């Protein structure tokens, strides 16, 4: 598997994978899991070590779209692909487990950011339940999100608590407590301690399924 192939499999670009190998970047937990799944083996999150194989001959690395092209045309095609990587980001769509890619969207990269967020931190979430329908967040919708771990007041996030993952609105209470709000047509609240909650992503905007 080439750097480019691995990058596409986990939703980052080729240079990001190279930076991981050289130690210039550090992978978050979600990316470590995606890389582990793509490579078919567990990767240590404290020392990301991607085993290098013998170089793949240039002629062997040919995309389906370039099959039948002459060698010179292949090089031009790959040059365009590399150039587009810096201006367009293929943003993966995940379900709540954040492991299996179920789709993708292409978004412009501006000043090395996508929608104002670091391009290696953004992704989409496919809404799996109707427990937030009162907020017009319904099963089948696609939410643009970015990786986040800090608890922010009055935000809607993908959270993990009590052995489950769900989309919830978070409100901070006194004494290290949090109020988790859902609405499946009727408003429901749960009070949990901040220590028992893990924030995985903050939802930014929603694509509604009509």
Key traits:
two-stranded antiparallel ribbon; alpha+beta; 210 residues; globular; Umud Fragment, subunit A; 9-stranded mixed β-sheet; 4 helices; single chain
Report on the structure:
- The chain has 210 residues and is an alpha+beta fold.
- The chain folds into two domains: 3-88, no CATH class; 122-207, Ribbon (Umud Fragment, subunit A), CATH 2.10.109.10.
- The protein contains four helices and eleven strands, in the order ααααβββββββββββ.
- The chain has helices spanning 3-10, 14-22, 29-39, 71-85, and strands spanning 88-94, 101-108, 113-114, 117-118, 122-126, 142-147, 155-161, 164-172, 177-183, 187-193, 198-207.
- The chain has a nine-stranded mixed sheet, covered by helices on one side. Strands 3-4 form a two-stranded antiparallel sheet.
- A hairpin with a 3-residue loop joins β9 and β10 (187-193).
- α1 packs across α2.
- The relative contact order is 0.12.
- The model is unreliable at 45-68 (pLDDT under 50).
